[in-house]
Amino acid sequence: MPRNSNSVNRLRGDATGNPERAPRTASERFEIIFPFVELSAKYEIKEWESLLRLAVPGAPVSRATIRRWLARFLEFGMAGLEDKVRRDRGVSRVFRDRFLAKVLMAELHAAGRPICEIHRALAQRWPVLYPGVKIPSYNSVRRYILSIFPREAKP
Asked: pLDDT 10s digit of each residue in the chain, 155 long?
């Protein structure tokens, strides 16, 4: 993998020097942790921890993130820097453990009510059912209903 002559510059942003964009790929993450991978081979963690504090102020991620990436890299190699696939991908977390809301939506949908009316009814009852929990958006309700009751294809 090509290396910049100035390792610290890689800590200050992406490959183009843009500090606004956080690394998205394993190779971009590796570019950020590379100086510490080299240090971890030569020194104990306590010795290079102070270098981490000095070198990272302009990094696009926090020191805690760099520590986590480094630990994952040292344990699993490049595979540890890959994004993990969520087990609940495609499943709304808004309605997890919200049985009464699910029953209300299913009941109103079965009665032929449009999604906007279902959302309005849910928004009215939500503060009583789940005090202190933010009311789900219209799009969250719509996505959930369409995931449970997909529209039939028109011939």
From this structure: 444 434 444 444 444 444 456 667 888 888 888 877 777 777 666 666 666 665 555 667 777 788 888 888 888 988 988 887 776 666 667 887 888 999 999 999 999 999 999 999 999 999 999 999 899 999 989 988 888 887 754 44
Angstrom distance (rounded) from CA 105 to CA 20: 41
Dist CA 71 CA 35 (whole Å) = 14
Are 48 and 18 contained in the same domain? yes
Q: What are phi and psi of 100, to 5 degrees?
A: -65, -40
| Domain tally, the chain | 2
Give the structural domain span for 112.
99-148
- Are the beta carbons of 40 and 48 closer than 8 angstroms? yes
Residues, the chain: 155
105 and 75 assigned to the same domain: no
